[in-house]
Amino acid sequence: MDRDRLARYSLTSPENDAAVELGLAGGAWFRSAIPRKRMKELMRRSDYPAVRDTAIWFGLILGLAGLGIAFWGTWWAVPFFAGYGVLYGSTSDSRWHESGHGTAFKTRWMDQGLYQIASFMIMRDPTTWRWSHTRHHTDTLIVGRDPEIAVMRPARLARLLANLVGLVDVPLAFRLMFLHASGRLTADEADYVPESERHKVYRTARIDLAIYATAIGLAIGLRTWLPVVLIGGPRLYGAFLFNLYGFTQHAGMGENVLDHRLNTRTVKMCLVNRFLYWNMNYHVEHHMFPMVPYYRLPELHEEVKHDCAPAYPSMWAAYKEIVPAVLRQLRDQEYYIRRELLPGAAPYNEPVPLADGRALPLAGAVAA
Amino acid sequence: MGQWIAACAADDVDPEDVIPVEHDGKDYAIYRSPSDGYYATDGHCTHEQTLLCDGLVIGSVIECPKHNGRFDYTSGRALGAPVLVDVRTYPVKVADGTVYIEVD
Asked: CB distance from A107 to chain B under 8 Å?
């Protein structure tokens, strides 16, 4: 039963066609009304914040790696590699995300350069994941359409927990690298990656495999773990934080809706977490207006908060809601977290009777 | 041979900005470049048909508000994923403070 339920999330499932037929695919999403003049201010790019933050980020990564290497063979290396691992294996996710949108920098090549580097660090093919994320924004949490639904109903708890140390993502990433290097895509990838873009996928996989083969070869040849602790390894031992951040985005929220206030969270975070996560905690705002660069999301939050449910005051507050909700969804897959909007907020956008968040089987509804 | 239509007043468009114009049920986007040149394209992104007038003009580039796809609005050229198909452009002229575009 659970297997049938989870099969609906595949992009090759009948839910995909049903979502198209019901108008949930490529649907008209709610957006708060913001005057054009203000919106232009919020969308404006500047190189300075991202250059500053990226310089600090790379500086920390290189500094911690250097100290880790200097103390290699002693216990003193552990805290340095712990920090290095989190910066490499977790915070590359938010850099991948922002530069993928092309909003971090004003100068295009800077976004493109950071995107390639961060994609390698987080072990995501830059082309397939660009298209995957494009679909995620078109059809956020539409079952059978969105390839980036991390917490399904019922949640695959063992996978989610194992992935805190990359035990699902990393083997999958290597399986995909070998598949792509042989000139093939998965069926889901073929659903959203255009023909004209596919050669880039194959080329990147071959380059990435060559880099990992070199690291592994050095480790064997020099009889030390150091090369793989530096390259690739952080995606295992440093991956927990991006998962903890990432689950707050959509876990337990509504599926098959056309309103990001029903399927996405905004969580207040401290300055350090906001630096590490590049303000992706303002996730409702990001989905409503993906053109706004990360450093202007706090301002955007002020513009739209009257239309939203109150932001979660902390990650702790978010998880106090997420954990019970996800556990309840193990036995009740129609349950989801539906938050009360503030008085005076624009009402939820629910144009389709089935778009109320419960994610009832669409294919069955269409057939009936 | 196309037909010239009055699209908007020249002052309706701020420098480095875009506005929507609708004619005969079809959407167009009218641009004013930072150097006060006027240009026109189809109103929708070629990727997923989002209205370009809600996007951001950066120099000679229009960025789609939905997926950040970019076009050179002076030529219509798609500048990379996720936009792979050029957007159609239209001839533009400005006379007596009015912007005209030549449509089919």
From this structure: no
Burial of B27 (0-12, 13-18, 19+ CB in 10 A): middle
Stretch A320-339: mean pLDDT: 96
Check the CA dihedral A251-A255-A258-A262 and report its sign: negative
pLDDT band at residue A3, thresholds of 50, 70 and 90? confident
> Which of the 8 DSSP states describes residue A233?
T
Asked, as a colleague might, if the bond just before A126 is cis with ω within 30 of 0, I would say no
Residue range A14-55, pLDDT digits in tens: 999 999 999 999 999 999 999 999 999 999 999 999 999 999
Mutate to test the interface with B, among A29, A32, A36, A111 (most CBs of B within 10 A): A36
CB contact at 8 A, A156 and A251: no
Q: Of A36, A21, A16, nearest to A146 (Cα)?
A: A16
Q: What is the maximal distance between C-alpha atoms in chain A?
A: 67
pTM: 0.93
| Order of strands across the sheet that contains B3-9 | B3-9, B98-103, B92-95
What ipTM score was computed for the predicted complex, to two decimals?
0.88
pLDDT digits 0-9 by tens, A258-270: 999 999 999 999 9
Interface of A with B in 173-232 (CB under 8 A): 194, 196-197
Domain count for chain B, please give it.
1
**Sign of torsion over alpha carbons A96, A101, A102, A103:** negative
CA distance B64 to chain A (A): 8
Residue B15: domain span: 3-103
- Chain B interface residues (partner A, CB cutoff 8 A): 17, 48-49, 54-56, 58, 63, 65-68, 70, 81-82, 84
Residues of B in contact with A194 (CB under 8 A): 84
- Cβ–Cβ below 8 Å for A26 and B48: yes
Q: Which residues of B touch A196 (CB under 8 A)?
A: 84
For residue A115, list chain B residues with Cβ-Cβ distance below 8 A: none
Q: Taking residues A208-213, report their average pLDDT.
A: 98
For β-strands B61-63 and B70-72, DSSP reports them as antiparallel
Facing residue for B56 by CB, picked from A40, A131, A137: A40
| Listed residue (A331, A368, A341) closest to A2, CA to CA | A331
CATH code, domain carrying B71: 2.102.10.10
- pLDDT tens-digit readout, B84-104: 999 999 999 999 999 999 998
